[in-house]
């Protein structure tokens, strides 16, 4: 079980029991603990704002001419930025300017001066290429992250206005979008988090959690399978506070959607259990958009899809309507959001103060979730294993850790893509998160790996103390790789519990046996790839590589044998064989390349002395990349072909993943 | 442009023009051509069967008691095999035995003794975990690939009956399934191929292409996004001869589908443009299943989903109904399929003989498609580039190659996931493959990368001479990685044209900039990963790595600089700088690791002499794995973090992907 921190983690776990492996257990006390920095609390968004008097002005509507000036301003901001950058997409911001205006100016509740105020409404631009829409809105609303100079450096090095929305660059942007379909799935995660927290913490006399999740998605998002997966779950869970705007503009990059997208989206969403509203004139039908939002809010047991038919690039404004002409009026009109936002937050803070007085215990848990400050000493809950502990598959050990952590970490929740009983991810003291039991913490994702990953990104980015985990067979990371990459990029800190991590799964055969997957995640930035070999490695974060047994002296073994996960046992056995023949053998566990890379040169030298070039690694996966560890004179034993269907023991033997092979390779090098 | 062969290819192509790069062009004649074996014709499924008299008995129906004996036999074969293997899934074979029986015994047209007879009906078990259903049916039908001893070695090492259906192991299995959702998408590709070929080659007096594609999919497949993507396209394309059975058994691994899958599948498929039929009693409603198939065949402009409600594991038969008791009757009943199949093929062969006489030119093209024997001299159509050729982005050069090949390869077809004008994949002499123009060869996949890959797998496996290619931005291989992996595993020979292959795409930022992707495909088995640097590298298959310039003698350069793709130009520039300072510098292009690995030790030594440890590689991606090429004393320049949004030149500079960095690294090593 990896420690919850900002780093997204992939845990690769075996399905095999490790009945005879004692090499590791004989030296538990020598396992170096992770450095303190790894234990740091994820307090990424700490907010401290003064309490102000509550002011409620959000329901006021604005005269139409000002609305149109505002909408045209949004369009101009987008056009100007795209022209200046000579790069980017003005079409969506222009077509969606009306709904953007209505959302940010009339509907949404937020505080521009504290983009992380907990009870804000969330907005996701799933059609991320239209990011100038969001930057223009954040700018008008008064967010410090998007000032005029930021708009001018759109898509430039070091700017706060990159080519797609990135939460880690631009406060006010909730999630990272661009790869199509991810955003709407993130929005499902955000709405799930709201529903879950509301059910857990709201009281009849004090509903401190009460906000909406809005998302704009286009035809591209609609075509992506991930969107269907996530929206099917949103319907299943009855996420009534999720309101999606489908920008139905009939255009994708290759031309009219007629060439590839003629399905009835309405009918499909009806099938998925959503409420559907069609705004036929999205270009100027402002009241229709307003009415649709009102109707959507009234439907509490279903998410709503508002199909807004727009003309892409509608309203290419002439200079007479430009921002430079009307900017002053528009800015003045929008300027109320700063004091209003402060009031909203102050009002909420006062409400929370009341809550805290009356519901002390719940308030403490809730504060941990919204601050990301984990309860003191939480890590002591992790089990420790000794020589007497029964050997077991690491996925079972992982379940012990998950269940231990769930007791002390109020924000830990998650589940599996229909493999909970194989991945061992059920939290035994909780029920299922479902439409009518949203307070529970076991999430049933169904066979929807990609949607699962992106939903977890949304959960993680909802509140710093929410720590989502999700699980499937390691090979099916291929289905969700785009979402995992975004976890890593956007610093979501999702824990991926990936079991059945090699040919060791046996009879299911090559479609189910990962080969290149360890290498592929070791090559991915910001991912902590862990392949633990036993209970203690599963429970903790270690230095990546460390010596599990050694009969040499003076840091000069004849040979170093290196293993990970299930194959560490094989390395240990080979070591015993070689020692019987009088060799000085060091056996090293290499649970994480990334953590090892972070250690001091002295530590690395103490584990892998440069003078010892006789090194053999063994891992039931691709040897790609192992030259780095074993050196050009060493030997990497692995599998550079696809697997096969047979009992695991037979495949290990046929593929040469054996102690004999390690011994033979070592002797060649000696 | 990679050569069409059995190997699945990923081409990583730049979006950048290469205006100033002349290093490569100065030595075009020294580029070693690929070995002859790479040019071999893909004649993977050559069939030669005697012509027999036509017999038509398929419409006969069988008395119900015999049908039930047959169905129970299928169930028993599955149960027995699973029990013997102590592994596998008997539930689906039991529940789906009735539809399986009706398809293979009453409906489908095939020849058991020639599983590759061109005009056979195709069957795909998308719910591949239920493979014992298919093995039992192939066994009863008389396929030589699944004899009694094969059933007894279910899921054992070296058997023809692996844990999931694998086309490369078991003749009679059309595609490789198991990872859920892939099979139904493959089936869409198979049905596309039939519709395309029928439109191109059928004549009013001789319809030589006329077969159906049947698929069984379960709840798991239905939840996967890839299935929705592919089925949306099937509806869009009006694939009337695609008939899907949805085994609606309300159970997935984690329990009742109520916990995660409550959408209305019927409504969704109605939205996708399918015809829907519900067979309420799939357990014993044999006539309802038969009527549904008849109705489905009558609907010619839409694919049909037959929802068959079954009870998983229905009819757990007692020994009184077992195969050992009724096997003899059942075998006798099924035995007619061998002569009938031979007759069907003979009848078709006679028809084709007529066709060949009358339509000589079409017949020649068609034969190339069904045999996989490419027209002689086809490779001469590829463009050759000289010093005078204008420099250009490799994606543009790729388009020239694709268009040149389309003229000589009748089976080349494909397209992009809504990025045709960016990926440069349009075949200019053809129109779009659409519902009413299925004879055309540009396929518009929409923003559905995962479905696209799996559909291409289906196209490739329909006929040996069909060579599908597909395209998107390289980073979005993450969306389709599961399908690419199956291309590689099942030997489909799909060509993946992946453009915008680095931070070089600039302003779109880190969500769109591949970093770890080259490494991740180099680690994947059976994939030929090519990163060409110019026209000739794009046009051909080379030895993987070769010297593009060298001022050393005696195979003893001071330093070796290694580049790929867009960065080869940087390596060449650095080489020029160092030579000005009197160094003996070799510059090497490393277009493909896999091809380099295949070369002789002597060739490798001639390119990368072991004695020269001063080696610097440069590639705008993860350095993971490069230790293998540069050695432990060399230096790999690359990017081990995510990218950023800015103009490309700026990002290259900020990340140190520059000639200066190469020169500095080289000097450190000298």
The main pleated sheet of chain A reads as: 7 strands, parallel
Q: Which quaternary structure do these chains form?
A: homodimer
- Terminal CA distance of chain A reads 37 Å
Q: Any idea what the shape of chain A is?
A: elongated
Helix fraction of chain A? 25-40%
Structure annotation, total helices of chain A:
24
Strand content of chain A: 5-15%
Could you please describe the fold and organization of this structure?
The structure is a homodimer of 670-residue chains. Chain A is an alpha/beta fold. Chain A is 39% helix and 13% strand. Chain A has 24 helices and 19 strands. Chain A has a 7-stranded parallel β-sheet with strand order 10-11-9-12-13-1-14, with helices on both faces. A 5-stranded parallel β-sheet of chain A has the order 2-3-4-8-7, with helices on both faces. In chain A, strand 7, helix 9 and strand 8 form a beta-alpha-beta unit. The longest helix of chain A is centred in the N-terminal third of the chain and has 22 residues, at 64-85. The two termini of chain A are 37 Å apart. The relative contact order of chain A is 0.14. Residues 1-5 and 18-60 of chain A have low confidence and may be disordered. Chains A and B meet through helix 6, helix 7, helix 8, helix 14 and helix 16 of A and helix 6, helix 7, helix 8, helix 14 and helix 16 of B. Chains A, B: It comes from Melia azedarach. Chains A, B: This is Transketolase, chloroplastic.
Gist?
Two copies of one chain form a homodimer. Chain A is an alpha/beta fold and 670 residues long.
